[in-house]
């Protein structure tokens, strides 16, 4: 009976768990890592980016995004939308072609892979014959022209990927008609480019690597015209009126050719090497866009003088007398121009450039061609991210002030709206305003609007101004002196070079109610900042705090303290620093917390911790936690030069290895196999030389960095007796030690004069000595104490101060609950001893039930070193759910994880992208958007919707057939036979493939 | 000799099991008291001390102890409930016999057959039964020598690691000794005193022999009480398993190296290339090397590893009488004598259920729970009325009285001092006549405090 009851209870709990927790990876914020291809559909107004790990992402109007991942882990080399349709084709590095579509389902569009295809050449042909180098999605929407390394052009019907062998354009066909006097006729090389005549869809131009271009008539299946360029071809552009072809070449030249009728005009009409005289680099892509009135826009990438500017990544824009070489900070992947007008054939409005590290959009309509700020795809890593901090539910007032401060910083951006506007964002408005703050290596803190689907940059704070640094702030303004040739203009914000690594931001804490912010950095600097809507000129008072407290025999070998500017500095509106603490020794700050109600900041390093009163600008407490025998912590980061050297050597080795494998990528399979074998052998040999072994030893007080302060926590709780609550500070160290200090604050009316004092109250040395990663106090109801000022702003229930409080200490190995004020262990949950995983990140979160609006529970969100996310209930500390979240090898991803107060989390999946996940059923931010097929009448007749419906029906019919076939139904087998003979063959093939896979 | 040794092992283990069971059943009632063993820390002195500045105090302590150290040894002996204090010349010519008679005289128990034991610096109860260990006891007294006298017909004293505490715990807990068959049994039959197994401190044991396949070995390493490092390394490797389809290779974790002089090496129970199958009862299959490492480190104070020894020739051979032995197995030929011993041992261990497969793990866990609760907590509550302090029921009343005594005179101390140090249950049931060591520099205690280090310093010991 009893057991039955208990069982009932458990199933109730299970149901509750289902209502509370659900794991979803919802979004990727930021800029795709290692982008490799760009595509754009003018009709859908969607842009697509493929990357080297096989992901494809579509973006439209802010909030409209789709993401797909190819099963093959190969780089996406080309992306082409089928004109006027919702399909797109991707070409991967492994020579496979993939068809994707945006299918509406329950009123929302989904990106789905609907087919894959690999060119099969004639038997016995070398693989180069079918290696695709150029793709043209024909405007009819039914054909795909595939140019290959062997020089052939294959014609494939889409979306079914049916080869139309009779329409293929073989190299022989073309070569036979090449004029005899053409120098390169013996070897035309691969197909470099395919372009369709914008006014006559039956004509395409085929550009061969050697330089020859052939205008081919698809209907008559014959060459119309030969264009005998002699330079290695890079790209072709057919002008809008169909009368000219532009070709760009590897010597930095471009040519314009007249498309004649029958009178074969072999001579180029115009040839130019724009940055000529000296040898130039190739012009990799050229585009010419006419304007309604006036000269056309000419845009091309590359072509820089090899010797002097060969390392620049430039796109040149020429429009009548205006000539600018846009100078990007990373390699250009691709670019396109967005044009006005209902058919997207009007004036150019914007230039969209995908470079390796960011997406830059230039407004071509506004004088001076300013940059349009991107609402998404923002390079998070414009300087490397060193830490992040999330603040949920920002009060509107603060939100508006931050936006206002940010707007003042963005005056140089174009006022034009974002030009990529495809799709409809159907996601409801985010329920609250969330801020994500990222700290960067260059000493900046960036504020991002993390409430919704787009991670939108709001404001950028720089802390470098407080200090003397080597860099001259005017450096960047010296660009673009008059008369310089080429006329460079720096664009983009990706700037990975830090002037001084000591500026790096390590910890951030923002109080959303008071607008106080504290930022701590690599050289032991802790800045306290206040939000001010006006610019102010002020000097920042620095206070040096000696954390060693007279510890003898110490010699710091790390970096020196930052040099503070004595003179007043002009700070722009926004967060302005007014107090500075500098730790001595200037080790990196490892823990930081701010209590805006008490006006105190607590900070910790590997040497100890302290409390600073930012109202009186006075230090309240210093505690040295350093073990005198801990040499590593004493000497600072430089003493580990050896290991850095070693890791450098290793990474170089790895780089060389990957480079070798890259270079050999195109070599045939046998060589590849050999290479792989050799690598395996080398790895084995390496393993034998130094087998990976792990020492099994209990932690001891003599371990290194036991004194490193891992966590700091302010709490108003019962420290001395159970009738008087007092302010307190709790600190946890790497050596499993917790220090508690009782803080005595003067009454509010004397807060400015009377000193704040701190007295040691308790110390807990955890027996297992694992690093303490989190501390929390729970009130009499078992609820975590609210944040400072939260109650004052009526946003939280005031904590229960009658029942007994509990102290939760979270170490890397276990969760342990102690009673207060008398500290005695009450409960614990062991993690490491059971499954070998350790706590890396922990945060208190509130989980609302999906079923009843008013039910919710507090819980701990935990990320382990195995990459699993756990939820642990409070105050009972019981494991609730766990989900695999991050690969355990992804150490930087795990280290970068940050939790929100509502059960969501962010972690870096690459230096430039945050993955967003949620464990809550209620708080789920995911893209919900709809893309409708364009129904515009173009000059070209394309398939009508019913037809597409039919094809879809056919497809599903084929699928049904397959399902039956699996049941060995004889009749159906016959049906299959029939359909195999029919034109659904490739579809079926695809499904078979899918089914097998 | 070796077989004798094994017997000792077994017997000892029984006692330990007893203690552990009591531990687990009575977490709350066990208690810990820390004392300062320096002579100056006697009650009256201490009160004075507390009023002084602590650095001074320490210096003074040092001085006094040095002075005393060279001349005489302070002895405190206990027989049943009675204490005697006297001084003994450190370099006195006396031997064991003289000392034995001296104690009999002092305690007025001439003619009573007793066993002598003393508490060493690490808090372990060690025997005095010959001139050698008597001199060892005198010389190691630092500076107080605690003698515990037991009637020989009483239950055999358990010497060894934490034996004091365990015994005390058992007594304190049960109050009246349960008159189970075991104890009455032993009272009637004088114990078979083969040597003194108690002279050995247990550092490892083989457990669960009866439930494990012969090819496997479950080894328990007792980290507590020793300062030896566990001292071994593990690596990834390939384990060959015999499957129905033939031989299959699966990844496994192996011992790759033993550190010389480490615990693992000194036990002789683990060897290089032994495959690790379980850590404290948890299967490691499918776990990465780092996970296994972390599991072992997390369990390092009471590590139970199940291995498949690379050398299969020394495997335990099953004997019929194993179950009666409470699952303790041993290498070699100690089986039968072991069982004889276990009959003689009057401890409740023999009454308790033989620990079976599943609860040998549970037992391991509970033991390690105890160890885990060994968090050292320093409280500094001088700002508080003292009454509020005595909330912890795990505190011995003895300590409470002491601490109240200590506290009352110094209610106006300017700088707060640590007033109590609570130690884990497992350090447990110790008694003291003096209170807590106070150190003005918190950080010193904090930085170096742990059970081990405290013992190591010899500054604070458990009695």
TrEMBL record, chain A:
Q: Cellular location of this protein?
A: Cytoplasm
Instruction: Indicate the principal place this protein occupies in or around the cell.
Output: cytoplasm
BP terms from Gene Ontology: cortical actin cytoskeleton organization; establishment of spindle orientation; exocytosis; Golgi to plasma membrane transport; regulation of establishment or maintenance of cell polarity; regulation of Notch signaling pathway
Recorded family membership: Belongs to the WD repeat L(2)GL family.
Lethal giant larvae homologue domain: residues covered: 272-370
Q: Which organism is it from?
A: Solea senegalensis
Q: Which keywords are on file for this protein?
A: Cell cycle, Coiled coil, Cytoplasm, Exocytosis, Phosphoprotein, Repeat, WD repeat
Q: Name one Pfam family in it.
A: WD40
UniProt protein name: LLGL scribble cell polarity complex component 2
Residue ranges of coiled coil: 663-690
Q: Which GO terms describe its molecular function?
A: GTPase activator activity; myosin II binding
Repeats (WD): which ranges?
A: 431-449
**GO cellular component terms listed in the entry, alphabetical order:** cortical actin cytoskeleton; plasma membrane
TrEMBL record, chain B:
Specify the superkingdom.
Answer: Eukaryota
UniProt keyword terms in alphabetical order: Cell cycle, Cell division, Cell junction, Cell membrane, Cytoplasm, Membrane, Tight junction
Q: Where is the composition biased (Basic residues)?
A: 1-12
In this chain, composition skew of type Basic and acidic residues spans 452-463
- Location of the region described as Disordered in the Swiss-Prot/TrEMBL record: 1-63, 171-190, 309-377, 392-463
State the family it belongs to.
Belongs to the PAR6 family.
Q: What is this protein called?
A: Partitioning defective 6-like alpha-like
């Amino acid at each position: 009976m009893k057991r039955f009851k208990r069982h009932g209870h458990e199933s109730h709990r299970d149901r509750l768990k289902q209502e509370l927790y659900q794991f979803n990876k919802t979004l990727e914020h930021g800029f795709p890592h290692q982008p490799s291809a760009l595509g754009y559909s003018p009709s859908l107004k969607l842009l697509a980016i493929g990357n080297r790990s096989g992901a494809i992402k579509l973006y439209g109007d802010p909030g409209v995004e789709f993401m797909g991942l190819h099963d093959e882990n190969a780089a996406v080399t080309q992306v082409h939308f089928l004109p006027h349709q919702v399909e797109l084709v991707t070409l991967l590095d492994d020579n496979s072609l993939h068809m994707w579509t945006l299918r509406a389902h329950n009123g929302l569009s989904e990106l789905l892979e609907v087919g894959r295809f690999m060119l099969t050449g004639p038997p016995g042909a070398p693989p180069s014959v079918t290696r695709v180098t150029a793709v043209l999605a024909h405007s009819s929407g039914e054909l795909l022209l595939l140019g290959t390394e062997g020089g052939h052009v294959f014609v494939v019907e889409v979306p079914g990927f049916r080869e139309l062998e009779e329409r293929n354009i073989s190299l022989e066909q073309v070569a036979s008609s090449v004029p005899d006097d053409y120098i390169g006729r013996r070897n035309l090389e691969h197909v470099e480019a395919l372009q369709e005549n914008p006014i006559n869809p039956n004509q395409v131009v085929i550009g061969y690597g050697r330089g020859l271009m052939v205008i081919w008539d698809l209907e008559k299946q014959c060459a119309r015209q030969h264009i005998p360029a002699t330079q290695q071809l890079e790209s072709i552009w057919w002008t809008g009126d169909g009368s000219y072809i532009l070709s760009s070449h590897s010597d930095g030249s471009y040519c314009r050719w007249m498309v004649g009728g029958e009178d074969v005009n072999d001579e180029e009409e115009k040839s130019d090497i724009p940055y000529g005289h000296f040898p130039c680099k190739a012009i990799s892509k050229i585009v010419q866009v006419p304007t309604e009135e006036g000269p056309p826009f000419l845009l091309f990438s590359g072509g820089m003088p090899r010797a002097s500017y060969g390392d620049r990544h430039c796109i040149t824009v020429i429009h009548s007398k205006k000539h600018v070489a846009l100078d990007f900070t990373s390699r250009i992947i691709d670019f396109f121009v967005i044009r006005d007008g209902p058919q997207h054939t009007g004036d150019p409005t914007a230039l969209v450039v995908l470079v390796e590290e960011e997406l830059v959009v230039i407004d071509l309509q506004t004088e001076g061609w300013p940059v349009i700020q991107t609402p998404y795809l923002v390079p998070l890593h414009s300087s490397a991210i060193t830490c992040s901090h999330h603040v949920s539910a920002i009060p509107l007032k603060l939100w508006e002030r931050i936006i206002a401060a940010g707007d003042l910083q963005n005056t140089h951006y174009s006022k034009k709206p974002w030009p990529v506007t495809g799709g409809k964002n159907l996601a409801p408005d985010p329920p609250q305003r969330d801020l994500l703050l990222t700290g960067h290596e260059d000493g900046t803190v960036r504020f991002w609007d993390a409430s919704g689907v787009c991670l939108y940059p709001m404001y950028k704070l720089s802390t470098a101004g407080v200090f003397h640094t080597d860099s001259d702030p005017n450096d960047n303004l010296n660009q673009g002196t008059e008369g310089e040739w080429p006329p460079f203009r720096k664009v983009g914000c990706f700037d990975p070079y830090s002037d001084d690594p000591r500026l790096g931001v390590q910890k951030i804490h923002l109080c959303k109610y008071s607008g106080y912010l504290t930022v701590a950095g690599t050289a032991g600097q802790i800045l306290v900042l206040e939000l001010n809507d006006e610019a102010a000129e002020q000097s920042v008072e620095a206070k040096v705090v000696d954390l060693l407290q007279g510890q003898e025999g110490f010699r710091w070998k790390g970096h020196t303290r930052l040099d503070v500017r004595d003179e007043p500095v002009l700070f722009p509106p926004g967060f302005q620093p007014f107090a500075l603490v500098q730790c001595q020794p200037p080790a990196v700050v490892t823990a930081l917390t701010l209590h805006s109600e008490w006006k105190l900041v607590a900070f910790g390093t590997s040497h100890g911790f302290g409390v600073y009163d930012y109202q009186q600008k006075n230090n309240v407490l210093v505690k040295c936690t350093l073990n005198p025998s801990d040499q590593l912590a004493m000497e600072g980061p430089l003493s580990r030069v050896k290991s850095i050297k070693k890791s450098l050597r290793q990474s170089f080795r790895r780089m060389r290895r990957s480079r070798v494998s890259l270079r050999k990528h195109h070599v045939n399979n046998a060589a590849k196999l050999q290479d792989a074998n050799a690598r395996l052998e080398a790895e084995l040999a390496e393993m034998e030389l130094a087998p990976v072994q792990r020492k099994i030893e209990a932690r001891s007080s003599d371990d290194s960095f036991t004194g490193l302060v891992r966590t700091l926590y302010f709490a108003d709780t019962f420290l001395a007796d159970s009738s008087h609550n007092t302010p307190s500070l709790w600190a946890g160290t790497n050596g499993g030690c917790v220090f508690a200090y009782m803080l005595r604050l003067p009454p509010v009316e004397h807060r400015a004069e009377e000193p704040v004092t701190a007295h040691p109250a308790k110390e807990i040395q955890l027996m297992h000595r694992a690093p303490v990663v989190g501390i929390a106090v729970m009130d009499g109801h078992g609820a975590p104490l609210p944040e400072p000022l939260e109650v004052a702003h009526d946003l939280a229930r005031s904590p229960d101060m009658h029942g007994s409080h509990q102290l939760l200490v979270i170490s890397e190995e276990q969760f342990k609950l102690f009673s207060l004020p008398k500290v005695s262990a009450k409960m614990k949950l062991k993690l490491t001893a059971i499954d070998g995983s350790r706590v890396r990140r922990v945060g208190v979160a509130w989980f609302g039930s999906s079923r009843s609006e008013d039910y919710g529970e507090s819980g701990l969100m935990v990320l382990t070193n195995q990459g699993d996310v756990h939820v642990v209930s409070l105050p009972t500390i019981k494991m609730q759910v766990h989900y695999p979240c991050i690969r355990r090898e992804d150490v930087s991803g795990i280290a970068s994880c940050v939790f929100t107060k509502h059960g969501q989390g962010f972690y870096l999946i690459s230096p430039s992208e945050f993955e967003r996940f949620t464990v809550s059923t209620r708080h789920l931010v995911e893209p919900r958007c709809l893309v409708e097929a364009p129904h515009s009448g173009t000059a070209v007749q394309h398939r009508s919707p019913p037809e597409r419906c039919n094809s879809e029906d056919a497809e599903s019919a084929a699928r049904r057939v397959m399902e039956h076939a699996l049941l060995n139904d004889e009749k159906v087998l016959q049906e299959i036979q029939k359909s195999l003979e029919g034109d659904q063959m490739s579809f079926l093939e695809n499904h078979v493939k899918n089914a097998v896979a | 000799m070796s077989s004798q040794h094994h017997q000792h092992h077994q017997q000892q283990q029984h006692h330990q099991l007893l203690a552990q069971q009591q531990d687990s059943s009575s977490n709350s009632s066990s208690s810990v008291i820390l004392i300062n063993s320096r002579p100056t820390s006697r009650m009256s002195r201490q009160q004075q001390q507390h009023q002084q500045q602590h650095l001074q105090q320490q210096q003074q302590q040092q001085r006094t102890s040095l002075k005393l150290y060279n001349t005489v040894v302070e002895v405190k002996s206990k027989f049943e409930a009675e204490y005697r204090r006297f001084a003994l010349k450190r370099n006195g010519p006396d031997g064991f016999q003289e000392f034995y008679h001296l104690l009999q005289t002092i305690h007025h128990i001439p003619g009573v057959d007793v066993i002598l034991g003393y508490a060493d610096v690490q808090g372990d109860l060690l025997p005095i039964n010959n001139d050698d260990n008597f001199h060892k006891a005198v010389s190691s007294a630092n500076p107080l020598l605690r003698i515990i006298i037991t009637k020989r017909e009483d239950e055999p004293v358990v010497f060894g690691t934490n034996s004091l505490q365990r015994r005390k715990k058992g007594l304190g807990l049960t109050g009246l000794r349960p008159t189970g068959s075991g104890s009455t049994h032993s009272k009637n039959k004088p114990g078979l005193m083969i040597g003194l197994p108690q002279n050995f401190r247990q550092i490892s044991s083989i457990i669960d022999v009866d439930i494990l396949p012969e090819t496997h070995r479950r080894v328990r390493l007792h980290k507590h009480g020793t300062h030896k490092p566990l001292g071994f390394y593990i690596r990834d490797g390939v384990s060959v398993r015999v499957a129905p389809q033939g031989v299959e290779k699966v990844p496994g974790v192996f011992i790759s190296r033993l550190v010389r002089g480490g615990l693992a090496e000194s036990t002789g129970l683990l060897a290089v290339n032994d495959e690790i199958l379980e850590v404290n009862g948890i299967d490691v299959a499918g776990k990465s090397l780092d996970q296994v490492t972390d599991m072992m480190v997390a369990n390092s104070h009471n590590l139970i590893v199940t291995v498949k020894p690379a050398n299969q020739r020394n495997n335990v051979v099953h004997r019929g009488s194993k179950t009666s032995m409470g699952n303790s197995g041993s290498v070699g030929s100690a089986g039968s004598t072991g069982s004889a011993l276990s009959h003689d041992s009057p401890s409740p261990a023999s009454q308790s259920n033989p620990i079976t497969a599943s609860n040998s793990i549970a037992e391991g866990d509970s033991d390690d729970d105890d160890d885990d609760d060994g968090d050292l907590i320093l409280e500094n509550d001088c700002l508080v009325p003292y009454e509020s302090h005595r909330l912890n029921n795990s505190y011995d009343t003895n300590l409470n009285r002491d601490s109240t005594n200590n506290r009352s005179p110094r209610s106006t101390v300017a700088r707060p001092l640590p007033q109590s140090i609570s130690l884990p249950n497992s350090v447990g049931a110790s008694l003291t006549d003096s209170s807590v060591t106070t150190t003005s520099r918190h950080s010193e205690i904090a930085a170096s405090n742990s059970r081990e280090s405290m013992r190591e310093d010899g500054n604070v010991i458990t009695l």
